[in-house]
Structures are given as structure tokens and as C-alpha cells.
Amino acid sequence: MSLLQTLKDAAEKLMKQMAPIDPRQFEDPVAMQTAWTPAKSGGASFGTHRLVEVDSTRFVMKKSLWSFLFGGLFLAVGIGVFIGGIVKSFWPMMLFGTVFAAVGGWVAYPTSLVFDGNTRQVAHRKGPISFSAIHAIQLLKEYVRGDKKSYWSYELNLVMKDGQRVNIVDHGNLPLIQKEAKTLQQLIGCKVWDGTVG
Predict the structure, then answer these.
(1) 29, 32, 151, 168 - which has most CB atoms within 10 Å?
(2) Where does the chain show beta strands of DSSP type E?
(3) Rounded to whole angstroms, how far apart are CA atoms 183 and 83?
(4) For the CA atoms of the chain, what is the radius of gyration?
(5) Per residue in 20-35, pLDDT tens?
(6) 22 DSSP assignment
(7) Strand, coil or helix: what is 108?
(8) How far apart are CA 48 and CA 170, in angstroms?
């Protein structure tokens, strides 16, 4: 196979993967009134969160070790640059260090979402969500173009009965996010619309 044909095949495969999702495939009227573009743009190339089983009726979505390491690196570099700016009395360096440290602190800060089968609620940062209000779990993919590399990021959203969405996670580990969607499906008792396949 020639290089030109290989490039052509790769381009065709990418175009097919980036094609818009047809919600009719899910045969559900709520899917037709639900948005099928990312609820949260961007994402990460690695698994930023993982679903941890506390017991058979309670699961917690926590930041992964990679998130803490990645955020910790940004935080350490930011603090180092900030101190260097103080030593040299150079305020742009101090400002840059502050921004870097703030991003690192935000990424590393331990947050979690609780899916409680006893109370039948999701303890979300925007307020509790009743399992009875959740119609489906939506999985989406987004091709993220970066300066040095591009990658796929995958999104897990809760879809309410009126088609509104609540984003839960957005990261680069597709097998993990699909597995966790099935776990949450069983706990909540809802559908899974997987827009990452095909």
C-alpha cells in the first residue's frame, strides 16, 4: 500500500469518526431533544477520574492518581516560578507563576461526586440530582487539537427527562468510561446512549 493511500485511508477513518451522531439510532424521543455536541469542550488525553465502589449501593467518582500528579507538577512549577519572580523582583514572572500554581491547585484539588443507591441521589456540585430525574447516560467523543498533539477525549453526561444534561467526567480513557457507564446504569436504572461507537 502506498503512503498516499495510507494517508487517504487514515483521513477517511478520522472523518467517519468525527461525523455527527444521529440520535435516531437510539429510538427514544428524549434523545431527539438532547444535544449531541460536547457539554464540556476540551478534556484530557488520560483518565482524570475513576468510579470507586464504597459498597454495593454507593459509588464515588474521584480524581485519579494521574490528576493529582499532573496537578502537583503544575503547582510545584508555579510556586518555583513565583518565588523566582520575587527573588528577581520581576512581576510578570510572579504573575505567570501564580497562574500556573492556580491551575495546578485546581487540577489536584480532591473533589468527588457520590452516587448513592440508598438515597437514590447524585451528590453533585450543583446540587443533588434524584435518580428518578435521570433518563439516560450519554457518552460522547471529541477530537481535541493541541499545539503538539491531538487526541480523543470522552464525555459521560447524565441526561434528564427533559433532555437537559449534567456533565460528570471528560477524559481520554474510553474503556474505563464505558465500563463505568454500565455500572452507573445498573445503579440508577436508566439507559446508556453510547455515541462513541461507530
Answers:
(1) 168
(2) 49-55, 58-63, 112-116, 121-124, 127-130, 134-145, 150-160, 165-171, 191-194
(3) 46
(4) 20
(5) 889 999 999 999 999 9
(6) -
(7) helix
(8) 8
Quick one: which H or E segment has residue 12? helix 3-17
Is 0.85 surpassed by the pTM of this model?
A: no
Identify the bridge partners of residue 61 per DSSP, sorted by sequence position: 51, 113
75 Cβ partners below 8 Å, 6+ apart? 100, 101, 104, 105, 108
Q: Please report which helix (H) or strand (E) contains residue 185, including its range.
A: helix 174-188
What number of other Cβ atoms are within 10 A of residue 189's Cβ? 12
- The domains of the chain are located at 29-62+112-194, 66-108
Complete edge-to-edge strand list for the sheet that includes strand 121-124: 49-55, 58-63, 112-116, 121-124, 127-130
Q: Do residues 98 and 90 touch, judged by C-beta distance below 8 A? A: no
Give the C-alpha separation, 73 to 101, whole Å.
9
Separation CA 145–CA 173 (nearest Å) = 17
Grid coordinates of 99:
497562574
Question: Residue 170: is its pLDDT beyond 80?
Answer: yes
